[in-house]
Amino acid sequence: MPMEVSYSILNKGKARINMNTGGFIGKMISNQVLLDNNSIGKNSDVNEVIFGTVLSSTLQYELFKKTKVFVEPGMNYYTQPLQNQNFNQFQLIFNFGLNVSF
């Protein structure tokens, strides 16, 4: 369940730059490990619920009236996905694509 807030840094002509931050909660749905649809066990010491934060920026440019191209570099940080271990996961993210309005 993500929650994100954006702040517009630049909105000039067809270009736009936003800073985004927020957090999320992840809930494990199943802890079964399958191989060819056969259960071969489960992950041990995995937290059922994890928390994380996200920090990113969005660079967007309007190609046509209802079509925009965007690039969104950022990072995710998950807190303690494993029990009994001081392990935090850090991920770099790079999203890109088209926004099309209808």
Brief synopsis:
This protein is mainly beta and 102 residues long.
Strand order of the largest sheet: 1-2-5-6-7
Main beta sheet: strand number and arrangement?
A: 5 strands, antiparallel
Bulk shape = elongated
The percentage of residues in β strands lies in: over 45%
From the N-terminal CA to the C-terminal CA, the straight-line distance is 26 Å
Question: Structural class of the helix and strand makeup?
Answer: mainly beta
Quaternary status of these chains?
single chain
Mean pLDDT: 88
Q: Strand-and-helix sequence, N→C? A: EEEEEEE
For this entry, give a set of tags.
102 residues, elongated, single chain, mainly beta, two-stranded antiparallel sheet, five-stranded antiparallel sheet, 73% strand
Could you describe the 3D structure shown?
With 102 residues, the chain is mainly β. The chain contains no helices and seven strands. A five-stranded antiparallel sheet has the order 1-2-5-6-7, with no helix packed on it. The protein starts with a strand and ends with a strand.
